[in-house]
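Hey team,

Filing this mostly as a record. A colleague (T.K.) asked me to run one chain through the structure pipeline before their review meeting, and I want the input and output archived in the tracker in case anyone asks later how it was produced. No errors, nothing strange. Just documentation.

Input sequence:
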Amino acid sequence: MYLALALLLGAGVGYFSRKYLAEAKIASAEKAAANIIEEAKKEAEAKKREALLEAKEEIHRQRAEIERESRERRNELQRLERRLMQKEESLDRKMENLERKEANLRRQEEEVEKLKQEIEDLKKRELSELERISGLSCEEAKNLLLKSMEAEIRHEAAMMVKQIETEAREEADRRAKDIIVQAIQRCAADHVAETTVSVVSLPNDEMKGRIIGREGRNIRTLENLTGVDLIIDDTPEAVILSSFDPIRREVARIALEKLIADGRIHPARIEEMVEKAHKELEQKIREEGEQVTFKMGIHGLHPELVRLLGRLKYRTSYGQNVLQHSIEVASLAGIMAAELGADVQLARRAGLLHDIGKAIDFEEEGPHVALGVEAARKYRETPAVIHAIEAHHGDVEPRSIEACLIQAADAISAARPGARREMLEAYIKRLEKLEEIADSFAGVEKSYAIQAGREIRIIVKPEKVDDPMIFRLARDIVKKIQEELEYPGQIKVVVIRETRAVEYAK
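Output structure:
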């Protein structure tokens, strides 16, 4: 029972204590809430005042900015207004100046018109006076003046044309000399001196008897098969082969050397060796032609033309090897064509083939130029190459720059020192005979053989020979040279007639 009372008392005390505590907490919370609300109101009021202040400051700042911009715009408008006023004043002044100048110009025009009228009147009076004094009308005087001026202008034009022609000729000569000199300097040429005999060395003099054979049958067989003369004389350990046909001479030399090396010399063996020598030489000829075309960079030649080029190695002209001469002409023509901007390949090809007729002139009748042209046509060379071959000795007039270059290169190669062999006495006699023929004609004052006898210049007396006569004189001299003189190539005859007028200013 006491326990129940105690529990009941405890429960009542707990209840009242919890109630008291809860009311105390509620009161404290309400007081805290009131404080928070009061502080929030104060803070809101402070922020409101700050916002109002910031708004007032922003309004004040924007007002100041607008006032500043307004002042700047007013200043700018005032400045523009002042500039417009200045320009307007300047335009007014310019208009005034223009009006004054226009007035001056009108006044000057009136004065000029008056002067023109006075000049016209004066001119008419002067013309009338001139016509009265000269006895010529205005039209007649004008025609006379025009004729005088025309004659003077024609004379000046003729003098100018002559000067231009002289300068152009001098420049062309200088340029041509430069090109030729450069071509000669860049072309390394050999000095060749071939003969019409070949010498075959023997191991001993006993070999001469074996070559002759019993009753001379061996030497007769070799001479009959090759067409070459064998000269066996007192020359120690040597046999001389003589023939104007270089191909036959070379066949005989090869065959004889093979017989000497073999040691068996009799007619049957000689015939066998000559046949082998023919085949060997033919192979060498083809190889030589191919080497030359490869060296010169010329392709597409007909095989027969290549073979004919190889034959030129065994052909000479006045002691000059024709193949070396052809190579030299091709090189010179190619260099000069490059300098002039012409067709280099055509010039080299035509230069290499220009003397191709000399490879067959031992076998066929006719000049080497005609034979070369026929061979080039036969083996389908181009018309430009055929024309260059035909024109290189002046048989026809050259129609292309390449043909002219072949002419020049051929003359240079043949005329250079050491190119051709000729006895000094015969050379001097030929030059003297050339000058003697020219001096034999009436009216000739002096003649000079130049260019190693390839050209003769003849100076005539102007009082005895007029201009039309010099052409007939040149033809007569050429005709007499052809009749009385033997010479290689061609000779150029130049007749010069000069009239000089000399006065002395004192």
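Quick notes for T.K.: DSSP finds 14 helices and eight strands in the chain. Confidence is low (pLDDT under 50) at residues 188-194.
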